[in-house]
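Can anyone check this?
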Amino acid sequence: MRRGAVVLVLLARDGAPGQVGKLERLLSHGSTPLRRTGTRAELGAALGTPPVTAVGVTHEGLATRLLEELDAEADPRAGEPRATEDDATYAG
């Protein structure tokens, strides 16, 4: 992260508070986005490794796609078109 290679950090929801806090403090001073997702076991399984608390994503395209997916999960309406005034007229 210090060299600027990491473009997204994923933190496990069940990460140890000390580890998570340290990473959150470190990231609060920069512009690297952070998302809490999955468990340590799920993140590790996705990488083919033992459980991990954090994953640093260095590929910009992958990071963009992950952010889209994670943000859509956080807001299930994110992918829906927004209603307009005209829509209200036909709402029945």
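Reply from J.R.: I decoded it. Strands lie at 8-11, 34-36, 54-57.
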